[in-house]
Design brief:
The protein is α+β, with helices and mostly antiparallel strands. The chain has one domain. It contains ten helices and six strands; from the N terminus they run βααααβαβββαααααβ. Strands 1-5-4-3 form a four-stranded antiparallel β-sheet. A two-stranded antiparallel ribbon has the order 2-6. Strand 3 and strand 4 form a beta hairpin. The two termini are about 30 Å apart.
Length: about 250
Amino acid sequence: MGPKKRPRIGASSSHQPSRPRSSFNECFRTNALHERLDKNFASKRVWESRKVDIGMLEGINFFYLSILQNWGWMDFLNISSLTYYNLFRTFFSNAKLEHDESGDTVIAITYFLMNTSIRLTLEEFGDYLHVSSKGNSKEKGPFNPAIFIQFGSASKLNLHDHVLHLIITWNLRPIKKHAKLRNTNNWWLDSFHTNRHPDLALIMFNDITKAIERGMNTNITLPHGTYFSYLFRRLGINTHGNTLVTFN
C-alpha cells in the first residue's frame, strides 16, 4: 500500500442548533439529524471486540501465529480502545456512501461528527486499522469440506482451531452465536489452514457499508464498534461526553 492519505476533513459552522450546547450536539448539522439518531439508531446494539491476548497465543505456541505475522495483522490484533456508543451510532445515522461511476462499488464513506466532515476511502480505512486491502474477500466461496464439524459445534474443534474461531468471531467476523460454526466460519478456518490471505480491510469495510444501507430498516447489531472508535481517535475526533465501555 502506498503512502498513507489522511481523509478529507473540513469544519462546518453554518448551523447553530437550538438545543443546549454540548460537545455531542456538534455531531449534528440540524435538529432533524439529531431526531433521526433518536428514532432509528439510539437503541441499536453496538458490537464490541475483545483485545487479543498475544501473550497467551505465544504461551500455547499458537499454530496460526506465524500466519498472522506473515499477513501483517499483528498491529491490528494489538489494537486496544474504548468503544464509544454514541459516536458510533451517530456515525451510522448520518453516514452516506459514495459510489463509482457504475454505481456498483462503494469508494468512500462520508459522515459528519463533532463539527467535522470526513470522507473515508477503503485504503484510508485499512491504513488507520493497520491492515492492507489485499487477498480474497469472497467469503461465500468454496472451502475444504473435511473441516466441517458434525452439528457445527465449535466445541469439537482442536485447541488451536478453537482459539482461532474465537478470534474470528470476536474480532474478524463478529457474530452473535460463537458456539455454532457457519459456512463463513468454515471459509475463514480453511483460509488459515491453506494460508490463503483474506482481504480483511475490504471485508470489514463492506460490513460497515452494508450496515449503513440497512441500518434504518432492520434491527441489526452495528459491527466493528470498537475498531471504529479507535479510528475516530486516530482522526482526532473529540470523544468527550460520549457513552463508552472499556474493551479488554
